[in-house]
Amino acid sequence: MSTEEATTVRARPEPIKAVPVRHPGRWVTIAVLAVLTAMFLHVLLTNDAFQWSFMIDNMFRPPIINGLVQGTVLMTVSAMVIGVGLGVAIAVMRLSTNPILRTVSWLYTWFFRAVPRLVLLAVFGNIGILWSRLEFGVPFDTQIGQLFGIDGMELRLFGFDSRDVLTGFMAGLLGLALSEAAYMAEIVRAGIQSVDPGQGEAAGALGMSRGQTLRRVVLPQAMRMIIPPTGNETIAMLKDTSLLMYVPVSMELFFQLDAVGKRTFQIFPMYVAACLWYLLLSSILLIGQYFLERHFGKGYGQTERARFRLRNLAAETGGGAAGAGGTVGGTPDGTGSGTGGTPG
C-alpha cells in the first residue's frame, strides 16, 4: 500500500475512557445515617429506662391479649366493614343524578370529615345524655295525639334503656365507623370515576342494568385504585382504636397497657410495648395489602400490556383465534370498550 493510500485510511479511534459520576452527597448521607443508627441502637441497648425484662414479662399477660383481640382487632374489623359498606352507598349517592341524594351524601361527608375522631368518640360516649330510653313506634305520637285532643297517646312497640345498648364498645364503634364511611365514600367515588365511561356504555349496550354494571364492570376495575388507600385507612383505623380509652373502652390494647404502666409506675416501658404491638399489627396488614394490590393489579402496567400485545399477535398469526371470546373490559389497561368478539 502506498503512502498516499495509507493516509486516506481513517485511523481507528481510541477507546473511550469513561469516568464514573461522583456522588459525594450519597456517601455523606450514608455516613450520617450510620451514625444515627449506631446512636439509636446504643440508646436501646444501654439505657435502663426501657426496662426490657419488665416490658416482656407484662406485654403478653392475659388482660393485654384480651384487649388486643376483643378490643383492637375486633373494633378495627367491625369499623372497617361498616365503614366500607356505608362508604360505597354514600359514594353511589354522590354520583347519583338525584340532587337530594347528592346533597345528603355531601353533607354527611362534610360533617364527619370535619369533626376530629377524638371529638366524635367523646360525643358518642356521652350520647346517652340525650335519651335515657330508646323506643320504636310511630314518630311524633304524643304531638299527633295533642293535635287531635288526645292526651298521653303513645304508639310505641318496644323500647330499652339507652345505657344497655350504648355501651362503651358500641359508642366507639359508631364513632369510628361513621367517620370512616365519610373517607371511604371519597375513595370509592374517586375509584369509580377513574374507570373509562366507555365501560359503562358497553355494559349498557349488552343490556345490563345500572346495578349490574356497577357490580360486574365498574367496581372490579375500580378496585385497583380503591385497594391502596383502603389499606392505608385500615392501618389508620387500627391505630385510631387507641382513642377508645377516651370513650372509655377498658377492653382495649392501649388502655390495658396504660393501666399496667400506671399501676406499676413504669409508664414508659409500657408505652414502648404499645409501639411494638402496633408495629406488629401494622406489618401484618401491610403484607395483606401487598397481596390484595397484586391480585387486583393483574393485567395492568407496562409488563402486562406487553404480554397482552404478544398474545394478540400470536393469536392473529395463528388464524384469528383471539376474536372468539370478547369481553366488556376491552384491553387490560381499561381503555377498551369492546362488547364481544366474533368467531375467527
Supply the number of helical segments. Answer: 14
Q: State the end-to-end CA separation.
A: 66 Å
Q: Strand portion, in percent?
A: under 5%
Query: What percent of residues adopt helix (DSSP H or I)?
Result: 55-70%
The strand count comes to 2
Can you tell me the residue ranges where pLDDT is under 50 for at least 5 consecutive residues? 320-344
Task: Explain the overall architecture.
It contains 14 helices and 2 strands, in the order H-H-H-H-H-H-E-H-E-H-H-H-H-H-H-H. The protein has about 350 residues and is mainly alpha-helical. A two-stranded antiparallel sheet has the order 1-2. Helix 4 (about 60-95) runs antiparallel to helix 12 and helix 11 packs antiparallel against helix 13. The model is unreliable at about 320-344 (pLDDT under 50). Belongs to the binding-protein-dependent transport system permease family. It is found in: Cell membrane; Membrane. It comes from Plantactinospora alkalitolerans. Keywords: Amino-acid transport, Membrane, Transmembrane, Transmembrane helix, Transport.
List the helices and strands and how they pair.
Elements (H helix, E strand, L loop, with lengths): L2 H6 L15 H23 L5 H7 L3 H33 L4 H16 L2 H9 L7 E5 L3 H7 L8 E6 H4 L2 H26 L3 H9 L4 H31 L12 H12 L2 H30 L5 H16 L27
Helix pairs in contact: 3-13, 4-5, 4-9, 4-12, 5-9, 6-9, 9-11, 10-11, 11-13, 12-13
